[in-house]
């Protein structure tokens, strides 16, 4: 069996449930980001690169992909922890991707990993898969399928640590549920699968901890003491109408502007997930 496909370990691709289309899109992402021409942002110490789905389609016409297909494949790579993902909302929605902790396994064979346990050729192993890092700066390319990257590439300067990312996610979920329990005087759990999925989905869309608190505050003020109070639960608050709840004006705001409040509100109830 041929060991590598497009520079990636074929056996590892199959193990992660990825195919040739995933490999082609990943190759495009890696090669393009290393030109330093890709728009990037640093979020919590990690470098993320904006991926224009239409550009992927234009650059890889042989794949015959549609925009939704490109998005799905990139999310597959994210779920496989080969890439990380961040959604930015600023005059539109933009998907940024970074390197996940499984990426190194795609470009490093088991034999290579054993050799890299000690310094090589006057340098020391590089955790980004760029080759051997030289003590006086820069990288020496020891992998023929990985191009030699310029030393000013942001990805060589910022570590990627999914363990830290997971800790931050768990901590945010805990804070959100604690705040909800405080405001509703209930006892929701922060590890319920449906709740975790909903919160994670909203965080992936770029919403912040303060956004969750605002939604909770708005709906507690609007629904407490009404027939809607029973819907002060995660599966309603953090589901599809989250953004609407965040941006709507609650009763006190309406009154302060001299407008008549609307007692009846549309409620979307989703049970068991998103």
Task: Give structural notes.
- The longest helix has 23 residues, at 162-184.
- It is built from twelve helices and nine strands.
- It has a four-stranded antiparallel beta sheet with strand order 3-4-6-5, with helices on one face. It has a three-stranded antiparallel beta sheet with strand order 7-8-9, with no helix packed on it.
- The two termini are 41 Å apart.
- The chain has helices at 10-15, 20-33, 53-59, 67-79, 103-107, 110-115, 162-184, 193-204, 209-223, 234-237, 242-247, 251-256; strands at 4-5, 8-9, 40-43, 46-50, 83-89, 93-99, 124-125, 132-133, 139-140.
- The protein is elongated.
- Mean pLDDT is 75; it is low at 111-164 and 269-274.
- The chain folds into two domains: 1-160, Arc Repressor Mutant, subunit A; 162-256, no CATH class.
- It has 274 residues and is of the alpha+beta class.
Short description, anyone?
The chain has 274 residues and is an alpha+beta fold. The protein is built from 12 helices and 9 strands.
Architecture blueprint of SSEs:
Blueprint lengths: L3 E2 L2 E2 H6 L4 H14 L6 E4 L2 E5 L2 H7 L7 H13 L3 E7 L3 E7 L3 H5 L2 H6 L8 E2 L6 E2 L5 E2 L21 H23 L8 H12 L4 H15 L10 H4 L4 H6 L3 H6 L18
Antiparallel strand pairs: 1-2, 3-4, 4-6, 5-6, 7-8, 8-9
Helix pairs in contact: 2-4, 3-4, 7-9
Spans where pLDDT lies below 50 across 5 or more residues: 111-164, 269-274
Helix coverage percent: 40-55%
Largest sheet: 4 strands, antiparallel
Content-based structural category: alpha+beta
Distance between the termini: 41 Å
Q: What's the CATH C level of the largest domain? A: Mainly Alpha
Strand order of the largest sheet: 3-4-6-5
Strand-and-helix sequence, N→C? EEHHEEHHEEHHEEEHHHHHH
What is the fourth-level CATH superfamily of the largest domain?
Answer: Winged helix-like DNA-binding domain superfamily/Winged helix DNA-binding domain
Principal-axes geometry comes out as elongated
Instruction: Report the strand count.
Output: 9
Give the rounded overall mean pLDDT.
Answer: 75
CATH architecture of the largest domain: Orthogonal Bundle
Total domains:
2
Q: What multimeric state do the chains show?
A: single chain
Instruction: Work out the strand percent.
Output: 5-15%
CATH topology of the largest domain: Arc Repressor Mutant, subunit A
* Rounded radius of gyration (Å): 23 Å
Number of helices: 12
């Amino acid at each position: 069996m041929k060991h590598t496909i497009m520079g990636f370990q074929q056996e590892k691709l199959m193990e992660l449930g990825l195919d040739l289309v995933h490999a082609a899109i990943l190759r495009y992402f890696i090669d393009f980001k290393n030109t330093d021409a890709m728009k990037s942002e640093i979020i919590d110490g990690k470098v993320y690169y904006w991926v224009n789905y239409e550009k992927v389609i234009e650059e890889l016409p042989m794949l015959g992909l549609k925009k939704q297909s490109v998005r799905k494949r990139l999310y597959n790579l994210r779920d496989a922890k080969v890439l990380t993902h961040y959604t930015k909302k600023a005059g539109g929605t933009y998907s940024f991707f970074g390197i996940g902790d499984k990426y190194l396994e795609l470009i490093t064979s088991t034999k290579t990993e054993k050799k890299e346990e000690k310094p090589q050729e006057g340098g020391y192993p590089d955790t980004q898969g760029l080759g051997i890092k030289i003590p006086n700066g820069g990288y020496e390319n020891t992998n023929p399928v990985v191009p030699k990257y310029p030393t000013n590439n942001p990805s060589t300067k910022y570590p990627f640590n999914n363990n830290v990312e997971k800790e931050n996610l768990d901590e945010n979920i805990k804070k959100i549920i604690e705040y909800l329990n405080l405001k509703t005087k209930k006892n929701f759990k922060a590890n319920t699968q449906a709740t975790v999925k909903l919160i994670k989905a909203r965080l992936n869309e770029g919403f912040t901890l303060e956004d969750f608190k605002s939604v909770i505050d708005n709906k507690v003020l609007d629904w407490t003491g009404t027939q809607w109070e029973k819907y002060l639960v995660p599966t309603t608050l953090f589901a599809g109408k989250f953004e609407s709840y965040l941006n709507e004006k609650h009763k006190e705001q309406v009154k302060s502007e001299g407008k008549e409040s609307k007692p009846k509100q549309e409620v979307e109830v989703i049970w068991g997930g998103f």
